[in-house]
Give the backbone structure.
Amino acid sequence: MRQRILKHIWALAMFTAALILLGMVYAQGSGLDSPNYSSDNIGTDVETIQDPDIASDALIKRSSYAPVVITEDFETIMARYKASKSETMQRQMNLLNERYDLGDHKANGVTMSRGKPIQEGVRVKLPAGMTWDKLAQMSPKEIQQKDLFPRGFLPLPHPNHSEGGMLFPKFQIDEIKKQEGRDLTRFDLDFDLPDRFLPEFPGPIYLTTRSDLGDVSRGKLVTNQNYFELFNGILNPKQLEGLRLLVTPFPQQQFNLLEDRRSEHPSLGVACFDCHANGHTNGATHLVGDIRPQEFRHRIETPTLRGVNIQRLFGSQRALKTVEDFTEFEQRAAYFDGDPVIATKKGVNILERGSQVHFMAEFQELLDFPPAPKLDIYGELDLNKSSESEIRGQELFFGKARCYECHPAPYYTDNTMHNLKAERFYKPRMVNGMMASADGPIKTFPLRGIKDSPPYLHDGRLLTLDDTVEFFNMIQELKLNKKEKNDLVEFLRTL
């Protein structure tokens, strides 16, 4: 009898322990006592369980889905994230300062289309005792084995990679709040890159249909408060309706009306032009929605929409075939990290393909590249208007540097994808919650107007055109000398 009672007590104790364990697992998935509970924390696993008799295959499997039911109240969630914000941002700024020279070094006499100075010089810091010439003489395998790949050439993490989500520069936040009263401030994060390395704000708008008008934005950020005033009489009714939808906010992962948000007050959401400001870019960042688990997701720097009419691929890695596909996809999935379950919960905006998507795409396809007065009708330099350095740079671009193989004139894109295989130069590693590993195939972005669109590469890891030339000199093993690299930068600034 005594033994039977002891067995029952033991069984009850084991059952209670199992319930506690499952409660801990549930808490991790739903946000209880977890600093990274968010619906962006896709792929959370239970690797902390050490006892092989307790852990099961079901417990250690990663999930492709974000937690749907949030059991904490919003005030508790917000308080926790506000408390950790300073530490999170300090960690990211330490990383940036370790990788780059973030100083204000303006290029002499070179500006973006509306006059913002361009930052010059290679900002990526070298390993101790190294020079760019020494590195250029080494093989990828040797650089990898000696761990000499410059840290600024590694993939760049989101300011809080385990959280992710849309993150806007302060100048965009301030102007939207001023015009619309809508607040894009996140209580958990601030934007990380200094303004000097971002596109000018607001960017000018050039239309393929009305090149005679020049910048039709009149120096204003286009929003739902002024789009009609600025474009009535310039666009047809379909295009005007498409623009209205592009400046209309819709629910998004971090900005919505529910308790699972990162804005202090319930939010109507974000608009397409909150990232693609004036049909261009403001440098806003996000994480791709295509990859799992979370640490393998790539940071993305918002690309410009200028020149989408000549492009045949959309999305840095998705290879969507039309701007209509991309417009529809963004609302359905990218706004919600590729999770249709969360999208349904937070209020996905399903656009109607035959009218709304078409109208939005029709306006986007009017967005032109900025003027390039030194280029002829073939997209190459008019030699009578160009400096000797620019001409030498063009010869390198179409010759020794082999840039033309992916970026042919006149728009400097081959409308396909390429895999640079930069991982030849470094071993995979965790960097601030991101697994820095292979990038995979990336679309060839047009280089027309490139000086107006810093930072560079799909994740914004290259702050200047000088950094970009140095990166490709290493990755392509070109062995360009200093003068050749400077000439190449001079040419790129003319595009």
User: Anything to note?
Assistant: The chain has two domains: 2-60, 91-495.
